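Supplementary Text 2. Reproducibility record for the structural model of the 594-residue chain.

All settings were left at their defaults, and a single model was retained for analysis rather than an ensemble. We include the record here because the model underlies the residue-level annotations in Supplementary Table 4.
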Amino acid sequence: MKKIRALAILIMFLMIFPSSCLAVKDELPSLKDIYEEYFPIGTAVSVASWANPKTLYTHDSLIEKHFNSLTVENAMKPDYLQPREGHFNFRQGNEVVDFAESKNMLVRGHTLVWHAQTADWFFKDNEGRRIDEKEEITESDRQLVIGRMEAHIERVVSEYKGRIYAWDVVNEAISDSPNVIYRQDSPWYKILGEDFIKLAFIKAHEVDPDAKLFYNDYGAVNPNKRDRIIKMLEGLIAEGVPVHGIGIQGHWSVEGPSFEDIERAIQMYADLGLEIHITELDVGMKGYTEEEQAQYYREIFKIFKKYSDVITNVTFWGMTDNTSWRADVDPLLFDKNQEPKPAFWAIVNTDNPWYVNKAECIGALAFRNSAGKELVTLLPGKYTLNDINSVFSLEEVARLELQKGYVAIFHESEDFTGDTYTYISTDEFDGLDMLNKVKGVNIKHVEFNNILLGKTAEANVAADRAERAIDGNSNSSWSPNAQAPYWLTVDLEETHLINRWVVKLHGTGPLAGANPDGPFNAADYKLQVSTDGVNWYDIDTVTGNTASFTDRNIKSTEARYVRLYVTRPTSLDFNQKLVVYEFEVYGIPLTNIF
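Retained model, structure tokens:
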């Protein structure tokens, strides 16, 4: 007999450890160590006098543990280094370089020539007039600006010669418009034309022949802008200009760019014979979940690893969400408390889902006492009662917390056979009672999938269309129009453990324009389960709904049959038509757990 105690879900994982070895949670893995064979992992740090906080110091433990390359976020931009002609301020830049050298880190210089964050005096003539605003720009005007640009490069690159290994020489010179190549609003372009790019690279190489020189831009994987960047780079290369690499600013979001565009751009830049740096990586998650953000990070790092022969640095633009310049979209690997998000765990090992990586590294099952204090957190694996008692007593335990995708199976036999009690997390755990019943626990990873696909559905109305609600096709629907209540039943064919359900209603239909909510969506409905198809039990109830998309976690429950039961098909009393595009239930056969 299998005794199933089904409750809620969070997350954790499994390996088999020898008897008398209790595998407890460990510390975070280091990103720089994980990617040592691929490329340096960098971050941008703030240290400018007006920066709050100065992350070089407030986040130094994160920096030292995870990164081996640094970029100064603002204090090496032209207006900060040379706010007045001939007056240079290297103090904050030197702080970063000194810190990096003391920790054996690389430094990328950002940036020498840019249309933004550059002091006005660079572009004024000797009478104080803006040269880029003149109707006619003379040759003496051009030479004045060239001299200033070259003098700035000479002084800055000389200051850090042999200490900064790579420079973003020119930043964001290509237009976003498909009709022109170069950015038309750049004062550098207005005064010098496209020649300013060539002149900047030649001068930087002359000052430090050993430094790697990069052109850096956002939108560099967008096909249209990518092609304009490539045309510009091809021209420079053909002229023998010393450009060594392309910096791809990764200011992206969960909704794009596509992985196909990213990979294709990398291939095309590599075909030019250039090194590639991912220079300003952050992935906004506005409108998406942390899990979706984690999956996006996982996929792009798969690509980065695939092309690690040409990608020679990946730099995040910051460390924590609250200190990011895009703080409103929470784009980074660590939250405001410097704790790792799912995105961090996603890139620890791109072969696994983020929650598997987390469980393997810092544990899968946490035991807590009645006061909520953590007694111990175990890594995935099998443990005997003797193992557990060597650290704490099971009778103290009043609560279990498991990582997503993991179950704790308590066995009455020391050889992990016979009767079992299975948990997916619970706030109600009687440790003393369990102590008298079991001899060991197996902490195991399981995958919960949509278990309705491929099954047979029955319904009390429009039965011939019932299976359209579980076919995985969002273009088809079950649409009864009689008198509520309506129900749709699915035989799972064997007993499952379920923990989540999804309903896609009227507004999610292709003809409805994917409306987020409205009165035509089912108003009152519930998920019911049964072990015999006769006696039904309410598991979760939705009332007063107007949303087109419902996605709800539930207490993990044993079920052979599931039923969607709708008592109010719309918010409009006169309208009894129900439209269900998809009904999904997530779970796993009990036979797959043991």
